[in-house]
Amino acid sequence: MSMDALIQERIAPVTELRRRLHRIPELCFQEFKTADLLRGELDRLGIKHVDGVPDAPTATIAWIGDTNKPCIALRSDIDALPIDEQTGLEYCSEHAGRMHACGHDGHMAMLMGVAGLLKAMEKELPVCVKFIFQPAEEDGGGAERVVKGGALDGRIGPKVDAIFGLHGWPSLKVGIVATKPGALLAATDNFTAVFVGRGCHGAYPHLGADPIVAAANAVINLQQFVSREMDPTDSCVVTVGKFNAGTAINIIPDTATISATVRTLNDESRRRAQKGIERRLRGIAEASDCKLEFQWNDGYPATVNDPAMADYVAKVARRVLGNERFVSAQKPSMGGEDFAYYLEKVPGCFFFIGLLPTDRNEYPSLHSDRFNFTDAAIPTGMKMFVELVRNWGT
Ligand SMILES: [Zn+2]
Ligand SMILES: [Zn+2]
Fold it and tell me: Of the N and C termini of the chain, which has fewer Cβ atoms inside 10 Å?
């Protein structure tokens, strides 16, 4: 039987599983029902699994095949978002205020379909395969805990030699696969800066120190930081998404607080941004007779694909899907992914699969309350994962 036929045979149960998962979205590290469902499926397939790692009880790590062979890991995230679903789907979320709005239901279902398919041919595989069902991608860095817990280094199952992960991508047509070598997604750091001035009556500003004007200056100045201190050919984004200050129109408050996300594509830019932003904000605070409380928080590192592994994904996609179905991404996205933590430890590649239905020109974006993973994309994702395993060493 051809691989397409083998995948086609499993489309109905994978779609059904995707919908069951869609009904029970759970947030970071609370994915207990989801993990139960996944573990039950693994049991049904006769695949052994380890349930939970330290600090991440909802992680599930399973493996098949001869552990003396090289080990390829395939990863799916399992968490959902705090969003009220507005899709009107018959199988929409049964958990109020929570929703699979990033398509992780699709990722899980595809990976489970792949696990079943590979299990049926495990003796013929050139590698052993590890399946990582990882919690808390959206906020919490589940990947970091899974890595620390031993998912890659041989403490849980075989030691991993290479890892692959995918994400559905609404701007690409169904059937298309895209990735690139090097940085694919950005680091997602953030900071909070409190400008501490001296409050007073709004009519007598000379009697106080205005933290709102200082913070407003800072918001504008941060854009000059990006344009004057960061390499123009090496992307950086500073977006101040929160600005909080004041209680009344005629009162200068004591403090003004800004918080921002800072996106960079490599460690050097990341540290440069951290240092430069703090230096500028301190200068602005001082010039305004304010004090500054500055808190920098490291988010996910940049997701950096191993060049050889990105070439391998491209080669396999062209071979099994057709030349025209692989798109070599020209630029990184400034979004982030905790898949980055795996890529810091082992070579691998993260890639996108198209979710835009072939008869449409637009589709709700990831994290939209109207987003729904496109079932028509399931064969492409399954085929990529299966063939990345079967073609290893060719
Ligand atoms: Zn997301
Ligand atoms: Zn996602």
Answer: N
Distance 52 CA to ligand 1 centre (A): 22
Question: How many whole angstroms from 167 Cα to the centroid of ligand 1?
Answer: 9
d(Cα 371, Cα 356) in Å, to the nearest integer?
Answer: 11
**Secondary structure letter of residue 61 according to DSSP:** E
Can you give the length of the chain in residues?
A: 394
Q: Which of 163, 169, 255 is nearest to 214 (CA)?
A: 255
pLDDT of residue 376: 98
Give tens-digit pLDDT for 129-143. Answer: 999 999 999 988 999
8 A C-beta contact, residue 235 and residue 227: no
In angstroms, what is the span from residue 79 Cα to ligand 2's centroid? 8
Angle at 258 between CA 221 and CA 232, to 5 degrees: 35
Ligand 2 centre distance from Cα of residue 325 (Å): 22
pLDDT of 1 = 86
Integer Cα distance of 117 and 124 in angstroms: 12
Tens digit of pLDDT for each residue in 322-355?
A: 999 999 999 999 999 999 999 999 999 999 999 9
User: Of the ligands numbered here, which is closest to the C-alpha atom of 99?
Assistant: 1
Task: Quick: pLDDT tens for 68-96.
Answer: 999 999 999 999 999 999 999 999 999 99
Sign of the CA dihedral with 99 first, then 104, 108, and 110 last: positive
Contact status, residue 152 vs residue 160, Cβ threshold 8 Å: yes
In this structure, which ligand is nearest to the CA of 104?
2
Ligand nearest to the CA of 82: 1
pLDDT at 115 exceeding the cut of 90: yes
CA of 366 to the centre of ligand 2 (A): 7
